[in-house]
Each structure stands twice: as C-alpha cells, then as structure tokens.
Fold this sequence. Notes:
The structure holds 3 protein chains of 3 kinds.
Chain A: H1 13-35, H2 40-63, H3 67-93, E1 97-98, H4 100-104, H5 115-125, E2 127-128, H6 144-158, H7 162-165, H8 170-178, H9 195-210, H10 214-218, E3 228-229, H11 234-258, H12 262-266, H13 269-275, E4 283-287, H14 297-301, H15 309-314, H16 326-330, E5 336-340, H17 349-366, H18 368-380
Parallel strand pairs in A: 1-3
Antiparallel strand pairs in A: 4-5
Helix pairs in contact in A: 1-2, 1-17, 2-3, 2-18, 3-8, 3-18, 5-9, 8-11, 9-13
Chain B: H1 2-36, E1 41-42, H2 44-47, E2 51-57, E3 60-65, E4 80-86, E5 94-99, E6 109-114, E7 119-124, E8 132-135, E9 137-139, E10 142-147, E11 150-156
Antiparallel strand pairs in B: 2-3, 3-4, 4-11, 5-6, 6-7, 7-8, 9-10, 10-11
Chain C: H1 3-36, H2 40-68, H3 76-100, H4 114-138, H5 143-154, H6 158-173, H7 189-219
Helix pairs in contact in C: 1-2, 1-4, 1-6, 1-7, 2-4, 2-5, 2-6, 3-4, 3-7, 5-6
Amino acid sequence: MPDRVLPTPRRSVAKSLLLTLPILLWSLLMFSRAMMQPGRAPKLAAAVTLVFMVALFFQMMRTLETHRWRRYFFVALGFLFPVGFIWQLFAIRGSMSIPVERMLSGDTPFCFLAIPMMILPAAIARTVIFPGSILPTASNPHAIAAMVAIWLAATLVLGKGWCSYGCFFGGIEEGFAAIPKKPRIRRIDPRWRWMPWAVLAAIVLLSAATLEPVYCMWLCPFKAVTEYPAVRSFETAVQMGIFVTMFVALVVVLPLLTKKRTQCSFLCPFGAFQSIFNKTGAFDIRIDQSKCTPCVLCEKACPTMSITPEAVRSGQPLMSCMKCGACVDACVRHAAVWHIKGTESGASSERARLMHLYSAWAFAVMFGGSIIAGTLEKLFGLVV
Amino acid sequence: MKKLRSILGNSGAVLTLALAALTPFLLFGWFQSAIGAAHLHIDPTYSGGEISHVIERPGYRIVVNRPVPRRSPLQRIGPFIQLAWTPAAALPAHLSDDLDLDGDGAPDVRVAIDTHNLVVDVAPLNARYRPMHSRGVTSFSALIARVNDTLVVRIPLD
Amino acid sequence: MPLTGLMTEALLLGVSSGPVCLASCSPVLVPVLAAEQKSPRGTGALLAQFLGGRLAGYLAFACLAWLLGLSLQLQPRGHALIYGLADLGLAIFLAGYAWTMRAQPAASCDQPCPAARVRLFAQRYKSFASVILGFVSGLTLCPPFVAAGVRAAESGGLAHSLLFFLCFFFGTSVWFAPSVGLGMLRRFAAVGVVARLTLFLLAGYYGYLAVIVLGRVFFHA
C-alpha cells in the first residue's frame, strides 16, 4: 500500500465551465445541421447528445479525471452503434445477413477493421479486396474512401487513442468490463498480449495470398452484432458459429470475468495495427519513477495489460496503450501522468491532458457523437 | 537540444489540436478525394471484372465482362465470366440466348434463364466452357442474382 | 526451340509470376523465417532450404508433366484433392514447426530420458521441416505454375522440361531474396513470439480449409 496518498484536487466550477466552453461551441457547430432538420426526433437526439458530450467534458474538467467520464461516452457509443446499424439493416432489407446481391452491387458498408488487410493488395495491384464501392454513392454512403479518410484523420489526431475515442465496437466490452466490482480471474499470462500481432500478421499475409478479407470472413466477433454472409451452407454456418462464439467469449464473458478489454487485448488485429501509430502521436503517458512506489494500481486499472513491471521501470506503458487515462486516474501518488512528447516528464501534465482531451473530444463529438445522435433519432422517432 | 525538443513537442500538440478541428472541414474531404484519385478499383472477384462488349437484343442488352481468372493458388473463389441482362424489368419470363463471350464472332454458350424464379441453365457450345445449372446463388462464381435493374449471371470457367 | 530461347522464356515467365508466388508462399515463409530469429545470413540459409524444397516440388511436377504429357488442366475434383492434401500437409507441418520452437535443444543428459528424446526429435524435425514446407508450397497449382507446366510438357524431352522449370524457379526466386531482411528483426524477442503464434493460427486456417475442400471432394462427388 502506498505510504502517502495525495488528495485528488477538483477544479472550480467557474474554471471548469470556461474550459468546457470550446467544446460546447464545437458541439453546437457539429450538431447544428441536425438541429435544423425537420421533425422533433432529430432535434431532440442532437440536443440530448450535445448535452451528454458537453456534460461529460465538464466533469472531466471539474474532477480532473479522464477515464470514468470517457467510458460513459464510449460505452454509449458501443451499445448504440449496433442498435442503429441493425435497425437500418432491418429497415432496408429485413435481415442482418448480407445478400450476395448487395455484394455484387458494391453496397456493402466498409468497416475500418478491414483496413490492414487491404493495404498489400492495394499497394501492389491497386485492387481493393472488399465488396464495396470506392467513393460514396446514394445507396452506400459508407464507402471505402470515406471510412479510410476518417481513419486517417483519426490516426493523425489520436494514434491508438482511436481505441478509446473512435472504435464503435470497443465500448461494448468496456461496458461489460465495468459491471463487476472485482475481477474473478486475476492472473492472465502476459504472453497472450502478443496474439493480436499474430492475428494481424496472419490476416495480412493470408489476405494478400487469398485476395479476400480473411478476418471479416473468419474471425471478426463483431459480425454477431452487425452484418454477416447469409447462412446457406456448412461453411457459412461454421463462420457464423465462430463469430458468435468469439463475441460471447471475448466481448461478454471474459470482460465480465477479468474486468479487461479482452477482445482488444487478445484478438483485435486493428488494435495491433494502430499501436504502430502510437509512435507518431503527440501525446503519451509517463510514469515518474521518483513518485512511483510501485503499488501496481495502474497495472490493475489498465484495461489492455499495457502496464507491466518492466513498463513501469522504463517509465512508460507499452505501445499497446490506448490513452484511456485509467492508469493516470488510478495512480494515487500522481506518478502516472499525461505527457507531451519531447517535453520534460511530469512538467505541465495537466496542460498535456487538456490538449489531448480537446483533440480527442473534438473527434469524439464529430464522429462518435454523430453515431449516438443517429441512433437516438431512430429511438426518439418511435415516441415523438 | 532539450529546448528544441520541447518546442517541437509542443508544436506537435498544437498541430494535433488544429488537425482535430480541421477534420470535418478539410481533412476528411482531402483524404477522401486523394483515395478516390488513387486509381484503385474493387477486386474483379466482387465487381465482376471489366466490361468486354455489349450484345444488343430487342428490348434489352447483355453486358459481357472480361473473364476473371484465379490470380492466386490460395484464392477460393474460382475463375468465372460475368454477364448482365439489363433492364431486368423488360425481360420476358423465359429467355434463351446464344452468346459470343470471347468476341470471336462464334457463339460460345447457350444461356436459358427463368427470370421470375431466377434459374439459369448454361449449355456450352465449345469445349472451353462447362455446363451450369444454378437456382439463385450456388457459389460466388456460379450464380444468378437480381442486382437493382440487372440480372447478373456468373459462369464458372473451371 | 533453341535452348537459350527456352531458358529466357522460362526466366521471364518466372520473374513475371514471382509476385504471385511470393504472395502465396508468404503466409508460410514469413512466420517461419521470423520465428527462427537468425541473423540475415542464417535467415538466408533457411530461405535457401525453403526454396530448395520448393524447387524439389517444382521439379517433381516437371517430371510428372513430361511423363504424363498432358496440359495438366485437371478436372476440378483432382484440383481440389491436391489442394486439400496440400492444405492438410501444411497445417500439420506448420503446427509441428511452431511446437518445435518451444522444445529446447537436447542438453547433455546422462540417461536418455523421454524429455531428452522429445527434444532431440524436435531439433531433427526442425532442420528438415523448412524443406518440406517449401516442397508443399511448391506443389500448389497456381496459374503461372500450370502455364509453366503446359509449356514444359510441350518443350519435348525430360531434360528440356526440367531445365524449363529450373529457369522458371530462378525467375520466381528473385522476388524472395528481400525476405532475408527478416533476420534484422531478431533483436526483438517479441517478433519470435508473434511469429510462433502466427504459425499456430495459420495451421488452424489451413487445417480448416483442408477439411472443407476434402469434405467437398469425398462427400459431394
């Protein structure tokens, strides 16, 4: 146990409101179009989302904590995205399964998880191994160019912070991981952390060799809550079985047992891919050795096992760090702090946190906020 | 050196903030246009390949695509040639066409289609092609499907 | 056709087919080279073993092409049978190869205990596994491979057929040379762990493919 626990200060309401003002203005700008749409449902959805996002940011400013408030947004995104997506599928075609006709017409919405598999075939043969369309069309706004553009922008702004502010799947397991007070399974072999890299290597090599998106066809657990090839044969039945099993095991059961984001930590190849861009981001987390006891609270709090004894000794988390802020908020001695790369560790950590949060939350409002508002609009449309 | 690193670091942080603000107004559009201009194309396995020639018939057209070969030994979707009858709404309930697929002037296959029940029968007129019967989608390289206002048929080539 | 013309044609066909060969062999080759964590020279030696096995596969096919004198446009069932068996072979060897990474070389042991015997077997297995993996990879009937087979069968004489395939092989192998660079990653211990896990995943994938393909051959005849 730490011998001296430093009190966590709170910022004054006035200062917190002042710091929240830019996000309020940004949110008003982002939701202005929705506010001007006819009907009450879009206006109400936009208003609720705006208040939600601004209130969370205000709390981040007031309490000087990040993870807890970010998690409310992220869990909301994780649960509302599939609701809105499945709603739309049923509205258009009455089913979650992808008919071949949709693939042939290039109307399959593109998912960012497929990006690593696309790179080699696109670079070598200029061919995109996905049954979608390159540019958005009336029937397919979620075209490849649009999703890749969002991903590129997000990567420049967030690096692997995408996994904490952008990924509309990660919130599902983060939600389940937050439910239990204590983990049932405490010891996890740290070598499992390398599995996402192995999955990434396997799917990149196999996709280039087979010219098909192997992860989407065989491994993606989120097919269970989005869309999947129609079950017409033994092969597609096995595929569906794998998707559902992976989802239940890695997204629901294991997070409940371990309080970790197990799908992200032990499977997701996109997360491994994004880890590379942690090297290019402007912000990171540092651990001040002079203040660290070590009490391993940060290690227990980290949802992706990115803090190990070796990482603590080296002064920063592993490259799998998602910049969720859990370790910073858990550290009672304020040894784990936000940091702007190139600057001195520990100096102006609150300034680093603020700059990171303004960037991340601006993206979150723009991207995740629009998804949340879209689903709320559908739900409110039932009652107003 | 320390000071320079600090200046660069802080500049990077400010730039990140600026990029976040510019994303919906500039970055997204730029990146999307750049990707659109990169001369990428959807893999012919999914798109059906490039158009080879069009055969005119009274009331409808048949678009014949170039054959899509198997380009990798591990590719599971076999080689095929895609044909498309359009407009689908103008097609009779049953039709039969002798089609020249390779553009040499001689018919290569006879295709008989039940357009209402989406059943296709292909009888080869030369040794290069195999017979095929498909009700709906048999596989990704052997199918008949209604795609918008087009009837798409894929004939396997192995 | 004059010999030099035949060799040039084969070499050019090989160079143009190289990317396809590299893409189809990479799922096996890259993790194997990365998992060994040898120096670039050691990686080069391992690559040579793999390519040697691949050459043996090609030459075996060349003999078959000449003996049969066919264009080797196999019926789909024959095609599928070869694919299925190759996938099964790959799955077994990949899993075994990944397993041998765990087994340490036999330490000096006074009595031949079972553990030491297992370690010795693993060490011996490891040394010829890359050759066998190369051989199995070389048996895949990729379109350029079949085209080369057709050409070889038409070239007249076993010697011409073998020479054609030898030149075709060297043409494709040019594209494999840069994989020696994987040896530079040996200083990252994590690369070895990741490569071994990748081998297990790939073994599972090929194993499943083998079940599906062979299932179709035997039950959907």
